[in-house]
Design the sequence.
């Protein structure tokens, strides 16, 4: 793709994400792996705006065609320790989208995922929980990932619990049912809003009707 760098929002002097979204769309349609390799390379660019544009384009690609960015899983894992918060949560977002595409490699990086979740980014925590839930839903990696998922739900702020409980339903099976219900019932008292309690109660009802979700 000609003049790839010039397609990024920062290089165009734009403050919106439209150029990055348009670029992602073109790469998705053309499956331009060479362009993806350049974007991954520029995650280390000296210009902050360019690095942030690149991760945006990459996870937009991953949201629709995860196979295109899955080969670069290691680069996204590296971002989990980056001092730039935007790259931290951008990297976690990309990893979320490719979890099922590269589950074996993702499972090997659970410690880095958990460490990234413990940093100061709500978005990274949100996507980290989804990653752990997806891995927990897989027979080969569930036993490894599920304890970390449960720990995240025990520790999360009460306002995040309803969403995390909903996202974690895919990880619940008959053998995990009682443990998951215990957590939700124990944390119910932490919920300050009626709307939050109703969402968790709905999750509890689904678990009690196990097999219907």
Sequence:
């Amino acid at each position: 793709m000609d003049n790839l760098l010039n397609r990024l929002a920062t290089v165009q002097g734009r403050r919106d994400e439209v150029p990055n979204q348009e670029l992602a769309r073109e790469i998705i349609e053309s499956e331009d792996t060479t362009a993806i390799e350049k974007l991954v390379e520029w995650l280390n660019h000296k210009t902050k705006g360019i690095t942030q544009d690149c991760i945006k384009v990459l996870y937009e690609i991953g949201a629709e065609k995860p196979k295109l960015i899955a080969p670069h899983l290691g680069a996204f894992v590296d971002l989990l320790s980056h001092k730039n918060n935007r790259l931290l949560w951008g990297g976690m977002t990309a990893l979320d989208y490719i979890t099922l595409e590269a589950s074996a490699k993702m499972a090997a990086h659970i410690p880095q995922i958990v460490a990234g979740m413990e940093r100061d980014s709500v978005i990274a925590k949100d996507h980290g929980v989804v990653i752990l839930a997806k891995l927990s839903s897989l027979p080969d990696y569930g036993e490894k990932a599920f304890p970390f998922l449960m720990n995240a739900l025990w520790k999360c702020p009460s306002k995040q619990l309803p969403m995390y409980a909903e996202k974690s339903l895919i990880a619940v099976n008959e053998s995990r049912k009682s443990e998951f219900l215990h957590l939700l019932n124990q944390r119910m008292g932490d919920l300050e809003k009626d709307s939050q309690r109703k969402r968790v109660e709905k999750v509890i009802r689904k678990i009690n009707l196990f097999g219907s979700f």
